[in-house]
Amino acid sequence: MRFVAQTMKTRRNFCARTTSLIVSERIFSLTFPILNIKSSKRYRQDVIVKRGQVGGKCAKFDRAILENNSKIKGYLMSWADELQHFESNSNFQMNENHCEIIFEKPTIVMKLDAAINLYHHFCDFINLYASLHINQTFNQDVDIIWWDTHPGGFVDNLYGVTWKAFSKHQPYELKDLDQKRVCFKNLMLPLLARQREGLFYNSPLVQGCSGTTLFKSFSQFILHRLGIKPPKAELEKVRIVILSRSTAYRRMTNVKEIFFFIADEKSRPEKESGALYERSSRCDETGDLKLNEL
């Protein structure tokens, strides 16, 4: 972590390399320009376009560090596009004279991946979960702002219940803050869904790195926060779930062979077909069989 800005008092303000994660206390304000939301598009990188539209009051502000950390840009790769115009203002105060809206609670601003796709949307959630660990905060009494510039807002009908694992409040929409001067007493800009060498998406293969419990603890965290109790496995049955894609680079080339293999095993005598269950007996708690165990 690098300290880009420091407040007058000792507080927690830091920015990760490549501006992939930012935490700020009592120094952050945003002036949203005219978004032209009716004709706007999703994944815009030009919401903050002028010096001073984002800023705060800092005892020390190092622009050189900010610029050096803002070289990697991309809507879901970093916060560089939004922070490159940050300026420190010695006259800034967290009050109604400088702010039209003040978020009193700790606030998380999220730039979002596709909500209609389970894989891509959970890139959002697992990176938010990792950000909570980095920031060492798991309080659910927080506000969340969906940073989405689509005219229809961010529609999350399929997986929207997952937000309840992170906050007990309904998230705010970016379009509701259009042309407002918004201030935050405690703000986190979390890790994003498609960072370079990030988590879940673009994850590199690191030699010697194995057996991490991050994904298991994320799964347990979601189930616990949502009050979901996994069903007990029916030991007499094995359920096989196969997700097959038709795209050129995500297609399973041997999916037909898998189906024929399973169908053939079912038609064999019980003694002979037992080999399938021996090879596939390592199931998870719900009785699901992972493909790499076939």
TrEMBL record:
This is Uncharacterized protein. GO terms for cellular component: endoplasmic reticulum lumen. The keyword Endoplasmic reticulum applies. Keywords: Endoplasmic reticulum. One of its GO terms (molecular function) is protein O-acetylglucosaminyltransferase activity. It comes from Caenorhabditis japonica. InterPro entries: Glycosyltransferase_61.
